[in-house]
Amino acid sequence: MIDADGSRRPPQIGRRAALRALGSIAAGALGGPLGGCGGGPVHLPGLTGDRPPRRIWRPQRANGATALLVHGLGTRSALWDLPGSGGLAPTLAAAGYTVIAPELDPAGDWSATLTPIAAAVRGPLFGIGLDLGGTALYRCPARFTGRIGVGAPIASGGFSAAVRGVLTADGAPTWRSFERHRVGGRRVIRLLLTHGLPAKVHRPLIRAGLAPMPAAQRRAWHTPGAGSAVPRLLPDLPPPGPAWGPTLVVTAPTDGLAPPWQCDPHGFGADWPELRVRTASRVNGDGREFNHLDLAVHPDARRRIWPMMIDWMNGTLEARRGG
Amino acid sequence: MSRRAPGAPNPSAAVAALIVPALLVSTLLVSTLLVSTLLAGCAAGMYPVGERHAETLRVPTADGAQIALRHFPADPRTAPRTHPVILCHGIMSNTYTWDLDDEVSFAAWLQRRGFAVYALDLRGGGEARRWGGYGGRGYTWSVDDYVEHDVPAAIEAVSARHGGRPVHWVGHSMGGIVMYGWLPRGDQRRVRSLVAVGSPAVLPVHVGWLRESGALLPLAEFFFDELPTGTLSLLGAPWADQKAVWPLHMLWNLDNLRPGSARRMAAHGTANLPARVVRQFYDSLVAGRLQSADGRHDYTAAMADIEVPTLLLGGVLDHLAPPASMMRAWHALGSATKRLVILSRANGADADFGHVDLTLGAAAPRDVFPLIHDWLVARD
Predict the structure, then answer these.
(1) Residue A262: its chain B contacts at CB < 8 A?
(2) B73 burial via Cβ count (<10 Å: 0-12, 13-18, 19+)
(3) Which of B345, B355, B371 to mutate to test the interface with A (most CBs of A within 10 A)?
């Protein structure tokens, strides 16, 4: 660990980190995560096999519903339980949801991978996807009780120079590599990924939350709208409308990677009674502006955004059950 | 002398019970009025804006109201441009949108580059308010009146001073919307090009409290034809740049304003609103389209008939004309030549632009003004 004056000091383990470590050990000893203590590959009835690897959180007081958390391009399922962020997965588990967070192959067909997982779940199922993980959920033909896209683009085009750079870069770059790159004098990671994360979140994100971004996935998003100054709906996406069912779009104006005009169905003239768009912003009393990953891991998202998502899920669940 | 029966009400005590609270309330109201006037005067004086225009034209409209045009003549030291430019402010605003002070004045900036510029005060705004009149109707007009009377009067007046040449129209927020409304019904040959800055084709639904506050509208309509928005803004000017007041973020990105700009704008750049205009916009928000006050005419759908080349500028932090609604405008326009630019740091701008700072932001002279200038020059 390096102090502000540049001197090195031994890493210190906080009380919370120690408790978390103990919880993880206990969970491992018992054969799986318990009560939001952590994640690991366990099997649910009707959901067998260990491909793709998945992390599952079982709630202590289950409400009978399941949440399928899908990470985005360039991230891993560890994103949902990063130390320091509070973790959306354990937060959902604490709210009564069984949580499944698959680890998707960056180069695979995500919708095809998600479909059998979703089909194996009994009872109400919510899909929550970040970035292209949300887009894959929109594509997934399985019947969801509700879908939540967090910074999930439904369109291609209108890309900024920084995004174009990311989407067309050679090889399989990681976000870590974009920490070094600059566009217009600004670090790409600040333009597209985060407005600044606390060190307690940033370090584990870099260590465990990021994945390579294969060219095929990046091109699949970039190509349909390449050269278009205004985003166009992705051609292989079911047209946004009532057929989508209950849908919550979480978007942030300063999301550099997937700004609202690529995520908000209203921009394409689509609207239906079960669509809700929630803009995370100071103007809505959220206290800050959010960038792409901030929505999923920033402690302020835990305070402002996740409770809203859970309220929406609970409301949708209640409506479905005729409450 | 009659004696009061025991237990009977004492009339003088009852009168006193009425008069004393009435006096207290009256005193409170009068002192509030006096203090408000004093504060308003102080606020206006504390945040000077100065004047840069050469003359003000008073133009009557066909329905007997008045509009004002502040004239910024082309700088004679530069090559003169062919077509004059009309700058039109948005809702609850006036010409200070375009000419706030010596540091941020798009009107003066454009004037120095050879354009004859006219900053328009729609009826009830800025200098037009001083003349009042409003066609003998009081403060009861709607956006339709801007579209049907103020816009053609402004175009006619400016065009007549420049040999009948078509004008460039640059509108901020509602200043662009009125042109969305007029062009499909008017003579489009009279408009050389349109620049719509933060002018949405549908009103935003993503600010939850904005929609919910519509519940208070009937109450406001009951008490006021003229909502005292400008007066309240003037009184609140000293606090106009407080980030903790989160509804202010709907108006501007304070990080993109010079010190004092927000206070000056609040003190000088706002106007009282007719309740009918607010009602019309609220109904449009609910309907998911821009529509006339009676709901019969769909302005958004009619945009398909617009043929004038149009540049749309939006701010990524503009919560009154968010990028998604600017994109709707781009799709709705029938113009063969149209361009949409969203101004954000991710898109290479120096700031993430909000609504008002599209014209008054610290980064506007670098990021916004040249875009508009180049567009006008290319179509001049």
Answers:
(1) none
(2) middle
(3) B345
Residue A12 included in any domain? no
Q: Which residues of B touch A259 (CB under 8 A)?
A: 316, 323, 342, 344, 346
User: Which residue does chain B place closest to A278, by CA atoms?
Assistant: B206
Cα–Cα distance between A178 and A192 in angstroms, integer?
10
Kindly report whether the global pTM for this prediction surpasses the value 0.95.
no
From A160, A186, A267, residue closest to B327, measured CB to CB = A267
- Residues paired with B120 in a beta bridge: B69, B88
Q: Is the distance from CB of A211 to CB of A309 less than 8 angstroms?
A: no
* Contact (CB, 8 A) for B262 and B354: no
Closest chain A residue to the Cα of B287, Cα to Cα: A271
Query: Could you give the domains of chain B?
Result: 53-378 (3.40.50.1820)
Spatial separation of the C-alpha atoms in residues B176 and B89, rounded to whole Å = 8
List the structure tokens of B96.
């200070």
The domain containing residue A274 runs over which residues? 34-320
In a domain, A180, yes or no: yes
Q: Do B339 and A264 touch (CB under 8 A)?
A: no
Q: Which one, of B331, B302, B327, lies nearest residue B313 by Cα?
A: B327
The number of domains in chain A is 1
Closest-CA residue of B relative to A161 is B347
CATH number at residue A137: 3.40.50.1820
Our CA dihedral for A208, A214, A217, A218, rounded to 10 degrees, sits at 100
Per-residue pLDDT of chain A (323 residues; tens, 9 = 90+): 233 333 333 333 344 444 443 343 333 333 333 333 344 444 444 344 456 677 889 898 899 999 999 999 989 999 999 888 889 999 999 999 999 999 998 888 999 999 999 999 989 999 999 999 999 999 999 889 999 999 999 999 988 888 888 888 887 777 777 777 888 788 888 888 888 899 999 888 888 888 888 888 888 899 999 888 899 999 999 999 999 999 999 999 999 999 999 999 988 989 899 999 999 998 888 889 999 999 999 999 999 999 999 999 999 999 988 85
Pairing, β A275-279 against β A247-251: parallel
Residue A139, domain member (yes or no): yes
Q: Which residues on adjacent β-strands are paired with residue B99?
A: B105
Q: Residue B107: which of B86, B128, B83 has the closest Cα?
A: B86
User: Do the domain assignments include residue A101?
Assistant: yes
Give the separation between CA A20 and CA A35, rounded to whole angstroms: 12
Closest CA to A151 of A280, A240, A268, A289: A280
